[in-house]
Amino acid sequence: MTGDTVGTRLRRGILTRLEWVWDELRQLTTASPARFAVLIFVALILLFTALYSLPAAAADGKPTSLADALFTAVSTICVTGLSTVDMYSHWSPLGHVITYVGVNVGALGVLTLASILGLVISKRLGLRAKLIAAGDSNPLRAHGGPVNEGQTVRLGEVGQLLATVALSTLIIEAALTLLIYPALIVAGIDPVTALWEAPYYAAMSFTNTGFVPNAGGLTPFADDYFFLGVLMAGVFLGSIGFPVIFTLWRHQWHVRRWSLHTKLTLITTVILFFAGAIVFLSLEYVNPKTFGSMDAWDTVFQSFFLSAMTRSGGFSVVDIGELNGSSLVAGSMLMFVGGGSASTAGGIKVTTLAVLALAVWSEARGRQSVEAFGRRIPSDVQRVALSVVAWGATIVALSTITITQITKAPVELVLFDVISGFATVGLSTGLTAELPDSAIYVLAATMFMGRVGTVTLAAAVAATARSQLYSMPVERPIVG
């Protein structure tokens, strides 16, 4: 028996076993893809916690503490960007590679990742796999039951969506790398070092994570508008979501063919981007510790940069801890909203805000239905949006109260970092690095719930929609 024959049989045996394991997982989790998402996320976090705990992953060659390793793993897989250690000096080259791989894995979304894995193993994408993958593009699909309303991405298009996710990630990060590399060279970075830092910055911008590969962070690039502009472009592309990228790729500038989800995402994102910049410009213009020492052009540009980063980017040029209290509140509001659905950004999502705003506007005008761009938004979508906001606010409130009680820190600082963790933004007032272990675990749980909790909740709410052959008598309580 030749070595090639043995090797071929071994590979076939491994693939057969992997396919069997995959089929078993699909059988167990098809009824609840949302539960599958949580399972995969937990498994990834445990795996990366073990990797970060390795002595070889730390620069000093010593094992990292469980609290710091777990927090870094959660922050990496949830593409948050918060850290309890100095991400540049604490980790060895192996640790930085683990971080780079982790953020790209976490950015894809666990349901998408699981579907791609199943496609690779089984060489096919059946109905069950399509239902799982569709859960990342629309939480209303994630309960696995029938959905009567039109979908952002139909089941027949799921295969194309998965290809778009994989290809867009590779292409966008490669393009960002090509743009960032010469900027690093001009800034005086060693060409060999820039070969690593360029793809690292590209990944951290597109995945909306915000980790930096150098000691000074963005301080050396504070006046490099090209470099900062590229980072903003990467954050924007990552935050609009893969379904929007899929729609733009298919229909390009044929706006009339864009889905309602795409239109709401882009319009709300642009409005919040400019509104945030105006707010930061007006609140920080005379603050000598932030924008007060800059000229007019620098102030305007940095206001837009800060507005983009509070949406989920996580990069910062100014010291967030030096912002005025009013700016911290404004930043907290922007972070809570976050980016687009099925994106690398966190928060309650811009479409959630848009749906609620349209519902309020329709109610104010006395309309019976919520409509936008010639389409009616069904009541179950409104209910999911309201539930996501309510539970998101509840998670933030409970986490803020708990951490404030543990640390006795000013509540405005705690609230900012908690929302940053919940919305997977990564900006910090400096409080996160000083948290005791008990508070670290609370904030890690907040990041986890912020990344997977709202989607799981949306799926659970959607799953409760059942046909009912009778209705209860109507009675209206007093509201307001």
UniProtKB/TrEMBL annotation:
Where is this gene product found? Cell membrane
- InterPro entries found in the cross-reference section: Cat_transpt
Source organism per entry reads Microbacterium pullorum
What PANTHER family has UniProt attached to this entry?
KTR SYSTEM POTASSIUM UPTAKE PROTEIN B, TRK SYSTEM POTASSIUM UPTAKE PROTEIN TRKG-RELATED
Q: Which domain of life is it from?
A: Bacteria
This protein is called: TrkH family potassium uptake protein
| Entry's transmembrane regions | 34-54, 97-121, 161-189, 225-249, 261-283, 381-401, 439-463
How is this protein situated with respect to the membrane? Answer: Multi-pass membrane protein
* Keywords for the protein's UniProt record, in alphabetical order: Cell membrane, Ion transport, Membrane, Transmembrane, Transmembrane helix, Transport
